[in-house]
Amino acid sequence: MEITFNTFERFVFDKLYFNYKTNGTPFLSRKSWGLKNFNRYFQGSENSKYFGYSYWEQNYQIRVPFNPASFIFTINSPTEIYFGFQHYLDYKGDVKVVEDLELFKTAFLATVKAKLTGDFKIKQSKKASVQKYFTVDCITAFDSLEQLWTSFSKFEDLIKTNFNETLRTTEANFKNLEIRQVKNKECEYCIEGIKKNTEFFRLTNLKPDISNFHDMDDKMKNLNKILYGPPGTGKTYNTINIALEALEEDLSNLTRDQVNDLFEKKIEAGRIVFTTFHQSMSYEDFIEGIKPIEPSQEGDPVIYRVVDGIFKMLCIEASFSLAKEEESVATENVLDFSLAFDNFVQEIEENLASEETIELATKNGGKVVVDGISQQGNIIIKHPGKDNTYPVSKQRLSKLHAAFSDLADINNIDQEFRSIIGGSNSTANWSVLNAIRKNNLVSKEVPKEIRKYSWDDKVQVVKSLKKEDYKRKIGEPYVLIVDEINRGNVSQIFGELITLIEEDKRLGNPEAIRVQLPYSKDWFGVPPNVYIIGTMNTADRSVEALDMALRRRFSFTEMPPKPELIRTEGKAENGMVDGIELSALLENINKRIEKLLDKDHMIGHSYFLSVEGLKGLKAAFQNKIVPLLQEYFFGDYGKIGLVIGSKFFDIKDNYLDEDFFAPFEDYDSSPLVERKVYHLKNIQEMSDELFVEALNNLQRKTTN
């Protein structure tokens, strides 16, 4: 890993700022009061080779320019970066404060020493002539910033927890100290000062404005976004860019073909899911539902299972990404047990195929028999000589495996197992779990970084996660694109999850919510690294008519027609075709539509981008523009004519005999006999000369 001081400083600040915005954890990176004095992100400098920040404030002052209790990052060289915690104790005032500081130091270090694991060194100053302090430093070198931050986050949690716990448990002894948590207003003041200091960004070759802060705010606020506009304005086109940018891909130097290739790769990798809402879309398709499963062998009965929908599956993938980021012992235990269970099932199937009787020992010294493996993958157990069978599932067994490290310590398996998984199959579950542990089938030869995780592995890990496991995690972003989001019954499709997609209700936030799903009975929440991007055709249904619950939980970005793009991005040279300026043509059409209807029914610029000549322009009018106008005006050719002009119509003056209509008493049909009949021309069969004449007529241009 090789990185500059300024880049690393910004990296740390962004992490802290992200945590503050998501979890509400205020911090202080500077102690200078007065906005103009915030000329760096942190106290410390490149010359001093360190910088630091704190979560605490106090009523006593010391000679160092920043907070006495701070997390410190030391940068000895571009390849040597370390972190630690430092607490200064050199108060030059009331001796009682110094005594309390020493008491606090002793109590705190005693607690931390017992819990630190890894390469850490505790150092204390001894000379009275210099500043007194103690430090807890990590002396491990890291290969990447993310690896360092993952390790640091665990260290920071340990220090913060024990620092606060020491204050709380020994508060009566520290009568002269007033150490408290940093307040939100102090944090906001600090951030505001840094935001306004644009000079610093210029001097350090970072962005010369505060757009990164706004970008981060937008990222937090726009986890749920809808692009809305009339047809052909590039809504679906832009979702590809937005989705890839959410995945932190740099698209600045890529061609459109390269962007599309990258998009397809992300779909194949499962990072992006694309779907379209329609009238038949349901909760069972989107979240979960009971579906028929095709029998594995011909003649077997059809079975029904609870099957995860597209959104639930994406959330499981995203949650698993967060769990992998943590790489906790609990997560690895779940994965190891999942592999052990699968290996055990495979061994059972091989033995059953050889018609071997498989007996497993019970806790009381008896035996149970493996009767088979169900289509759901459960191990079927029964007692010798009896017909009743008991299914043992991986999910339940994984919970027991996590809850009981030693099966020999269990005294009452019915009571203790029931407290974890419920049910009445305690003997069967104990026997299978005991057999798996004795077989020790977990392979330690596969390195974790190249280990292949099955879908079932991921599900088991996510089910094992608790709310607190999502805190302070970022994870890889995942994106769901919902095209035509307003065409589905949103209340029916999202169900109770319409609340869970809110930013502050996402897992990892203080107001996070989980709900129990109706079919699987699983507890489910939406992780913070899932983006939802929707598109909405305003000509199909206006924004105002959209479900209010959906509107409140999404930010809306209007995608109006942009005629100027025809000139800059279209295939026609300078946006001109045989003297016809395509952008002006589109503007004329849209102004008339807006006058007759509204802006939601205008024509998008994308219909003109692929036009190279008159042939392509004819096809655009015949196959795209005119059909849209017919739909907009419900076949009212008079209004269509007001938009595109009379030259696109064959107008017949049918003067017929008065006896043309069938006789109908007391109804005067004579005005109808004189009525004109309008027929739209087949535009692609028009000559080039007549077509250009019709376009000039549309724009009220006279031709010689």
Q: What general outline do the C-alpha atoms trace?
A: flat
Beta-strand residue percentage? 15-25%
Helix fraction by DSSP (H/I, runs of at least 4): 40-55%
Q: Tell me the radius of gyration.
A: 35 Å
Unreliable residue stretches: 62-66, 127-131, 198-221
Number of strands: 25
Q: What is the terminal separation in angstroms? A: 72 Å
How does the helix and strand content classify structurally?
Answer: alpha+beta
Biggest sheet features:
6 strands, antiparallel
Order the strands across the largest sheet as they lie in space: 1-2-4-5-7-6
pLDDT averaged residue by residue: 81
- Compute the number of helices: 25
Characteristic terms for this protein:
25 strands; 25 helices; 704 residues; alpha+beta; six-stranded antiparallel β-sheet; Cathepsin B, Chain A
What does this structure look like?
There is one protein chain. The protein is of the alpha+beta class. Among the domains are: 5-213, no CATH class; 327-442, Cathepsin B, Chain A; 577-698, no CATH class. It is 41% helix and 16% strand. The protein contains 25 helices and 25 strands. The strands form eight sheets. It has a six-stranded antiparallel β-sheet with strand order 1-2-4-5-7-6, with helices on one face. The chain has a five-stranded parallel β-sheet with strand order 10-17-20-9-21, with helices on both faces. A four-stranded antiparallel β-sheet has the order 13-14-15-16. A hairpin with a 4-residue loop joins β1 and β2. α10 packs across α15, α11 packs across α12 (394-403) and α20 packs antiparallel against α23. The longest helix is centred in the first third of the chain and has 25 residues, at 145-169. The radius of gyration is 35 Å and the shape is flat.
